[in-house]
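It is worth pausing here to work through a concrete case rather than discussing structure prediction in the abstract. The textbook approach is simple: state the sequence, then state the predicted structure, then interpret. We follow exactly that order.
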Amino acid sequence: MFTLLGTDPSSKARRGILHTKRGDIQTPQFMPVGTQGSVKAVSPDELTQLGAQIILGNTYHLFVRPGMEVMKKFGGLHRFMGWDGPILTDSGGFQVFSLAKLRKITPEGVHFQNHLDGSPMFLGPREAMEIQAVLGSDICMLFDECPPHPCERDYAAKSLALTLKWAAMCKEVETPGMKFGIVQGSSYADLRRESAEALVQIGFDGYAIGGVSVGESEPEMMAAVEAAEPFLPAEKPRYAMGLGTPPQLVEMVARGVDMFDCVLPTRIARNGTAFTERGTLNLKNAEFTMDEGPIEDGCECPACRKFARGYLRHLIKANEILGLRLVTLHNLHFYLNLMRRIRGHIEAGTFAEFRKKFVSEYVPWKSEEVAAPLTA
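Step two, the predicted structure:
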């Protein structure tokens, strides 16, 4: 299911192809987030034109609304949202622990009140996989517990034991797509190793590194990936969940990660912030009022091909929907094009030079540009 085409001699960066029944996915790859059956402000046709090869959906949100009866009526998420390509669905574990109003964890799963109306619900490993089967997911994530940060070692160890128990239960449920295990273990390197080795023993089609970008520092985030990666099989794809900024993606690729998702490009677009090669631009700033140039020179996205920064600023300040749509298209193009460039540099043997230049010249984005946690 995964073909490893080549590696970078200067790092652990990999070039591969993940084969699915709905098409091949070139890796490294970024997956736009369509949590509720929609990548915010963007149509499926536009995603195709941007070059998206796979998108992300979420079990928890779709389970709560519109519900499984609707999904069964439409024959799954692909037909429901009009997307013909592959879909990866998160199991909903993170949302249960971060969004549910009240919850009680048991060995069988989690009893909780959903975030919409507080009605009682239950989600466990079998239920999560059965829901993903109804959705018709091409890649199904196992149901896990994502421990908070910071996290005491004792809690992290107990949480990991429960996640591994659930992983074995998930493996038993038949689904139409591939199954990915999720490495947990908080910030403890030995627990990350234990998690990776146990999941490989159970046997999955790919492996994700979860519990990252949950409030820890960037060095801790990188350390969590570094602690797990050596114990994951080279012949299977690796996925870092919920990451991240452009330099973080480059650095994660250098650490052997193949797949990424993050709400950042669409979320900060709705605040009027655009990505560029050298950092972000807050297009609401007055300095762009008379600016006749595109968001970024040389960019081929729909916004940059036709519209000026001054016009985009006007749209955003006037709360016109077109403004946030155009900036969203630009940001998704930036992320997807970054992955294309990374793949090209790995193939050409120039990834080391690209990595050094890109990361050193990129100005970190400002926290005030984001209105809510990136993992929501």
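Step three, interpretation. The first strand starts at residue 2 and ends at 7. The chain has two domains: 2-262, 269-369.
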